[in-house]
Design a protein that fits this description.
Radius of gyration: 26 Å
Structural class: alpha/beta
GO molecular function: 4 iron, 4 sulfur cluster binding; metal ion binding
CATH class of the largest domain: Alpha Beta
Number of domains: 3
CATH architecture of the largest domain: 3-Layer(aba) Sandwich
Keywords: 4Fe-4S, Electron transport, Iron, Iron-sulfur, Metal-binding, Repeat, Transport
Protein name: L-lactate dehydrogenase complex protein LldF
InterPro entries: 4Fe4S_Fe-S-bd, 4Fe4S_Fe_S_CS, FTHF_cligase-like_sf, Helical_ferredxn, LUD_dom, LutB/LldF, LutB_C, NagB/RpiA_transferase-like
Organism: Streptacidiphilus jiangxiensis
Low-confidence stretches: none
CATH superfamily of the largest domain: NagB/RpiA/CoA transferase-like
Largest sheet: 6 strands, parallel
C-alpha cells in the first residue's frame, strides 16, 4: 500500500524536522529558484500580463458564481458527445466509482496521467485494495510512486529529490514493476530520462484503461483539456480503449475563447515556457479514433464547502501552476511534505482548511504556515489574495473551537474575553500587569505559554499603562 498523508503531524512539528534536513533544503531551493527565474523572464515578455491576470480572475469568479449552470452544461455536452458523466460528493464515492468502472473492464493494471485530484482522494490506494495496479506515467509522479514517496509540489511532485536519489530509486525499483533500469545507469539526466522512457513505454502499449485528471473543462463543448510537458499524457489519452477522467468541479471554463486566456498564463507561470509542449483536448468519443469508452467523474470533496466561504472561495480560482510555492520563503525552507497534503505551499495553506474545515489539528495549523509577506499574491495568475484568506482562516481558528488549541489556551482566551467585557475588571488587570512585570521570565514563559516564546522575545511590560499615562498628563500636554 502506498504511503499517504493520513496521520501526518501538524505543520509546526513537520516543519521543525524538515528545516533540519540540509539536503532537502538544498534540493528545494535549487529547484524553486530555477523555475521562478525562468518564469520572471517569460512573464516580462508579455506587456499585457496584468490584463491577462485580471481576465482570468474575472472568468473564474463568473464560473464560481454560476457553477451549477456550467456543470449541467458540461454534463449535457459530454453526454451528447458519447461520454458518461458521474457525480461524486467525496473521496469515498469517487474512489468507489472509478474502481467499479475499471473492474467492469476486467483489467488489473492501468496507466495514469498525473493528477493532483486523484492524489487528493487517494485513488491509487483504493485501486490497489481492489487488486488493480495504477501506474503513474509522468516522470516526476513515477519517481514518487517508485520510491514509495509522496508528492511535494503540484507541478514537479519529485522536486525534493536530486539526480543521485532518482538513480537509486530507478535501479532499486524499476525491475519490480516492469522493465528494469539499464545496467550501468548513471545520474546523467539524459540517461535517467531514457530509462524512464523505456520502462513506461511498455505500460503505455499494454494498458487498455487510462485515468486522467484535467486542467480545464470547457463547458460549451464538454471538452476535457490536459496540459503536460512530456507526452505521457497524450499516450494515455489516445492509446487506451477506456478513458476515465476524474475532475474537480471547479475546473470549468465557459468557452474555448476563455480557455485561451488560461493557456497563455499557465505554462509561463508554472514552468517558465511560452506554451506547454503538449495540450490535449478531447470531447466524448470519436468512432475509430482514441478511447471508445469515456467516463467523466466530477468530484466535490469539500469544494462546495469552500465555495460557501465568502473570503476563501477565491482559492477555487487556482489553476495549479505552483508559482506560489516557488516564491514562498516558508515552502523553500520546509519543502512540501511539511504541509501534510498533496497541496503544499501557500495554496495548500488556504485550500486544505477550506476543503476540510479548521477543526483538525493538522489542517488548523496551516494558515499559520506563512510569513504574510504577500509574494504569493504577486505571482498568482488568477489574483488569489492569499494573505486575505490566511488572515480570515486564522480568525476562524482563533474565534472557533479548533482542536489545534491547547486546553490551557482555550481557558485563557475565555478568561481574557470575560475580563475585557467589563471595563473595571480590565483596568484592574492592566494595573496588576504593570506591577507584576518584573516577575515575568525574560526568555521563556512557563508551561503551555512556552510555545509562544519559542520564536519570540518576551516584551518589556511597562509599569504604567498608556491610559493611565494619558490621564495623568492630560493627553500628553504635561
Amino acid at each position: 500500500m502506498s504511503r499517504t498523508f493520513v496521520g501526518w503531524p501538524a505543520f509546526p512539528e513537520a516543519a521543525a524536522a524538515a528545516t533540519h534536513d540540509e539536503r532537502l533544503r538544498a534540493n528545494v531551493t535549487r529547484a524553486t529558484h530555477t523555475i521562478r527565474g525562468k518564469r520572471a523572464r517569460l512573464v516580462a515578455e508579455r506587456p499585457d500580463w496584468e490584463d491577462l491576470r485580471d481576465s482570468a480572475a474575472a472568468l473564474k469568479d463568473d464560473v464560481l458564481a454560476h457553477l451549477d449552470s456550467y456543470l449541467l452544461q458540461v454534463e449535457e455536452q459530454v453526454t451528447a458527445a458519447g461520454g458518461t458523466v458521474h457525480w461524486a460528493r467525496d473521496a469515498a464515492e469517487a474512489n468507489a466509482l472509478v474502481t467499479a468502472l475499471v473492474q467492469a473492464t476486467g483489467e488489473q493494471e492501468i496507466v495514469k496521467v498525473k493528477s493532483m485530484l486523484t492524489e487528493e482522494i487517494g485513488l491509487d490506494n483504493a485501486l490497489e485494495a481492489a487488486g488493480i495496479s495504477a501506474r503513474e506515467t509522468d516522470l516526476a509522479a513515477a519517481i514518487v510512486q517508485l520510491g514509495d514517496d509522496l508528492p511535494s509540489h503540484v507541478v514537479v511532485p519529485a522536486l525534493h529529490r536530486n539526480r543521485a536519489e532518482i538513480r537509486e530509486i530507478f535501479v532499486r525499483e524499476m525491475g519490480r514493476h516492469g522493465r528494469p533500469a539499464p545496467d550501468g545507469l548513471t545520474d546523467d539526466p539524459p540517461q535517467l530520462a531514457e530509462a524512464a522512457r523505456l520502462h513506461l513505454r511498455e505500460k503505455f502499449l499494454k494498458a487498455r484503461v487510462a485515468v486522467s485528471g484535467a486542467n480545464f473543462l470547457v463547458a460549451e463543448t464538454g471538452t476535457v483539456v490536459v496540459v503536460e510537458s512530456e507526452g505521457n499524457g497524450r499516450m494515455c489519452l489516445t492509446l487506451a480503449d477506456t478513458l476515465i477522467s476524474v475532475v474537480g468541479i471547479e475546473k470549468v471554463v465557459p468557452t474555448w475563447r476563455d480557455l485561451e486566456v488560461f493557456l497563455q498564463l499557465l505554462a509561463r507561470n508554472a514552468t517558465g515556457e511560452r506554451m506547454s509542449p503538449y495540450t490535449t483536448t478531447f470531447s466524448g468519443v470519436t468512432p475509430g479514433d482514441g478511447p471508445q469508452t469515456f467516463h467523466l467523474v466530477l468530484v466535490d470533496n469539500g469544494r462546495t464547502r469552500a465555495l460557501a466561504d465568502e473570503v476563501g472561495r477565491q482559492a477555487l480560482r487556482c489553476i495549479r501552476c505552483g508559482a506560489c510555492m516557488n516564491i514562498c520563503p516558508v515552502y523553500e525552507r520546509t519543502g512540501g511534505h511539511a504541509y501534510g497534503s498533496v497541496y503544499p505551499g501557500p495554496i495548500g495553506a488556504i485550500l486544505n482548511p477550506l476543503l476540510k474545515g479548521p477543526d483538525d489539528p493538522q489542517t488548523a495549523s496551516l494558515p499559520y504556515a506563512s510569513s504574510l509577506c504577500g509574494a504569493c499574491n504577486e505571482v498568482c495568475p488568477v489574483r488569489i489574495r492569499f494573505t486575505d484568506v490566511l488572515l480570515e482562516l486564522r480568525h476562524q481558528v482563533a474565534e472557533g473551537d479548533a482542536a489545534v488549541k491547547h486546553p490551557a489556551e482555550k481557558a485563557a482566551l475565555r478568561a481574557i474575553g470575560a475580563v475585557m467585557e467589563h471595563p473595571a475588571a480590565w483596568n484592574a488587570a492592566v494595573r496588576a500587569a504593570g506591577t507584576a512585570g518584573p516577575l515575568v521570565p525574560k526568555n521563556r514563559l512557563p508551561g503551555p505559554l512556552g510555545g509562544w516564546t519559542d520564536s519570540r522575545s518576551v516584551p518589556e511590560i511597562p509599569k504604567e499603562s498608556f491610559r493611565s499615562w494619558w490621564k495623568r498628563t492630560d493627553g500628553g500636554t504635561r
